[in-house]
Amino acid sequence: MELSLQAIEQRVGADVHLHPISMQLVPNAVTVLLGATQAGKTTLMRLMAGLDRASKGKLLVDGEDVTAKTVRQRNVAMVYQQFINYPSMTVFDNIASPLKLRRRDGSAASNKAGIDRRVNELAAKLHIEPFLKRLPAELSGGQQQRVALARALAKQAPLMLLDEPLVNLDYKLREELRDELSQLFAAGESTVVYATTEPTEALLLGGHTAVLDAGELLQYGPTAEVFHHPRSIRVARAFSDPPMNLVEGQAAEGRITWTAQGQTLVLASQLPAAHTGKVTVGIRANALHRQRQGIDVELVGRVELAEISGSDTYVHIDTRFGELVAQLSGVHNFALGENLSLALDPGQVHVFDASGNLLLAPSGRGH
Q1: What is the CA radius of gyration of the chain?
Q2: Pick from 48, 56, 100, 356: most CB atoms within 10 A?
C-alpha cells in the first residue's frame, strides 16, 4: 500500500498543530515518527487513519484521494498508548475478532483451524499465551496492551498505525517485543507507521524515520542516514539519546577553534578551508572515550554526575567548554568532583553552520 501526504496541515482555531507536511511513505515497510511529546506524531496518525480531517492538503492511498474518507471507510489497524480491548471477550476472542470478520471470505486464515493457529502464534510472540482464556480486566496494563497489539497484527490491514505501543511495558519486555515486532514487520504484509519518543527504538526498528518537532517535519529518510546525517541541530537533538553535546567554535583554514576561559583547543577538520566563521560542533556521547589515540584531542573536566545504565556508564563532566555527557562502555565508579580526562577523535564530530544547518558529518559525510 502506498501512502502519500501532500501538504497536509492541521489547525484548530488559531493554533497550528501540524505545519504543511509532504511525505511519500515506503510501501510495506516501517516508517518511524520520532519526536518529543507534542511533536505532532499522534495528530499526524489520526489524519492517516481518518479519525480527523486535515485543515488543508491531501492524503492519497494508492493514488486515490482519501482525505475526506472516515476511518470506517479505510482498512486501518491502530494501537494507542491507551490500550482498547473488548471487555466482554476473552483474550483469544479479542485477538481472533478481526479474523472472524473475514470468515465469509473462506480463506485459510479465516477458517477455525487457521484462526486458532494465527491467534496462538501471535500470543506466543507477544508472551500472552497463558492468558488466552482470561478477560482483559484480569490482566495487567502491560498484558492488555499486548492483547491490543496482537489484535491489530491479526487484522493484517494494509496500513498499521502504532502510537508508542510499548510505552506501558517494563524495560525487559519492551526490548524483547521490539525484536519480535521487527521480525513481524519485516514480512512486509503492511505499511507500518510507528510513533516513538525514543531514538534507540527508531534505530532498532530500522526502516525509514520522520523526525518531527513542534508540528514540523524536519527530515525524512532511511533511519541510519537520518541518524548519521542529521540535516540540522534540531534533527540532531531529536535523534540523540542522551542529547548531543553542542560546543560553539570558530572555523578557519580547515580547522575549528574552541576558546573558553582564556584557553584554546584546536580540532583538525575536513571542512573546506574557505569556510570561515561561527560553527557549532556536535559530539555524540559515545564519541567520547577514555583512551587517547592518534589525533584525538583531550578534554579535561570534573565529574558532576555518573549514572550506570545497563552495561554503560553516563558521565556528566564540567569542562571549560561547558558540560559534556560521555557514554562509556562498561560499569565505572567515579567520585563527584573527580578530575576526568576524555579523548575525542575530531573525525567523529558533526559540524553545523551559524544557522544550525549541517556542514559536515563523521567519516567525511557532508552535503
Answers
A1: 24
A2: 48
Whole-angstrom distance, CA of residue 353 vs CA of residue 175: 37
Neighbours of 16 (CB within 10 A): 16
Q: Reduced to 3 states, what is the DSSP secondary structure of residue 52? A: coil
For the chain, how many helices (H) and strands (E)? 8, 21
Within 13 Å, how many C-alpha atoms sit on residue 132's CB side? 18
Residue scoring higher pLDDT (67 or 273): 67
Determine the average pLDDT of the residues in 42-68. Answer: 95
Q: How many CB atoms lie within 10 A of CB 64?
A: 10
What whole-number percentage of the chain has pLDDT above 90? 65
Residue 315 has pLDDT above 70, yes or no: yes
Calculate the alpha carbon distances from 37 to 168, 196, 238 in Å.
Answer: 15, 9, 11
DSSP for 134-184? S-GGGS-HHHHHHHHHHHHHHHT-SEEEEESTTTTS-HHHHHHHHHHHHHH
Cell of 320: 571549560
The string of pLDDT tens digits covering residues 131-144 is 999 999 999 888 88
Position 103 scores a pLDDT of 57
**Distance from C-alpha of 233 to C-alpha of 280, rounded to nearest angstrom:** 9
